[in-house]
Amino acid sequence: MIRIYDSDKMAIDEIIDRGETKTSAEIEKIVSDVIATVRRDKDEALRAYTKKFDKADLESFEVTQEEIEEAFASVDKKFLEVLEKAKENIAEFHKRQVRNNFTINESSGVILGQKIIPIEKVGVYVPGGTAPLPSTVLMTVIPAVIAGVTEIVMATPPNSEGKVNPVILAAAKIAGVTKIFKMGGAQAIAALAYGTESIPCVDKIVGPGNAFVAEAKKQVYGKVGIDMIAGPSDICVVADGTNDPAVVAADMLSQAEHDKLAAAVLITDSRELAENVQAEIEKQIAQLPREEIARVSIDNNGKIIVASSIEKAIEISNAVAPEHLEICVDNPFDYLNMVKNAGSVFLGKYCPEPLGDYFAGPNHTLPTNGTARFSSPLSVDDYIKKTAFTYYTADALKNVSADVAYFARQEQLEAHARSAEARG
Predict the structure, then answer these.
(1) Could you tell me the residue range of the domain that residue 400 belongs to?
(2) Confidence (pTM)
C-alpha cells in the first residue's frame, strides 16, 4: 500500500535515492562487453545478440518497404487517424521551437553571427519491451524532421518471428523515418554509434530504453551525441481537497504501470484527500491488466505527502523535480510561475498526464530522476548544431590586435599573441 507522509524531507530523500542505484557495476560491465563485441564482430555480433535476447534468427536487419506497407495496411484505420491527429499537434508545437540564423553587422568592419545547422544523421531507439510505443516514434522523429535532419535511422527490437510490431512501423511511416532496423538493447546502441556492415553509424542517438540501453547511451557518448540518460518514469500530482480521489489515483497509476521502478507521488494540503486516494489506489490497482508492475511501483516508490498549503506543495515538488507535474487546482496558472523544476507541467483538473504522452503536442521524452533541475524535454534543439562565425576587416583587426595580444600574454600563450599581431 502507498504510504502517507507528514514529513516531506524523508519522502523526498527516498524518491531521489530511487534513481541512484539503477545502474550497477554489473550492468556497466555487461554493456561494455556488448559494445566491444559489436565493434569487433559487427553484423555477426548483432545476429548473435538478437538470437540470444529476442529469440529471432535474422538474415537481414533492415525492415523492407514491403514490410512497412504490409504493416501499415494491417493497422486499424481509426488508430491511423489518431496517429495523424497526434502528428499534427506535435508538429504544430515543435515548429514554434525552430531557431533562426542571426547576423550582427557592425559599421566598424565587424560581422558576427550564428548559423543553425541540422544534425545530418540521427538514430532513434524505440523500445519493444512489454508494450509497443508508437508514441515514442512520433515524439522522437517529428522534431528531427522539423529540424531538417536528412537521415533518421530507427532501431527497434523484433519479436521471436523476426517481425516489428505493425503499429511501430505505421507510426514510423507517418512520422518520416528514413530507415528502420530490427535490433534492440545495448547492441543496437553500439551499432548506431560505431556502424556495422549493415547499419550506418549516426551522429546522435535519442530515445528511451531499459537500464542496458541507458547505460549503452552513456558509454557511447563522446563518439556520438545523446539526448539524455532516461531513467524510470515518475509523476507528481499536486492537488487540493476539492479533487476527486478516483481521478487522482487514476493519474498516479498511469505512471505506476510503466515500470516497477516508476514513482507516483501525490502532494496535497488535504489529509482527507490523501487517505481517500490511498484507498482508491488499492481499489483501482487490482483492476489493471499490468497490476503486478503497478503494485511493485506503488508499494516501493509511491508516496503521498501532506503539505501545509498548495504553495508548500509546489515547493516540495521543486525539490523532487518530477518528470511529469500535474497541478490539479481550479486556478492552476496562479501557481505556474512557482514551478522551477519539472519536465512537463499539466495544468488544471482536466489535463491528465496521458494527454502529453500521446496527443497534446509538447514532447513526452522528458528528464527523469530529478534531472529536470538542469535539463529539458526533447525538442527541435536536440537535432541542430549552432555554429558561430566572425569576420573582421583589416582596419577592424588593427584596432583590436593589441588588446588581443595583451590578453593572450596574460595567459602566457605567446603564439596566440603573435598570431594577433602577425598581420601588421
Answers:
(1) 393-421
(2) 0.93
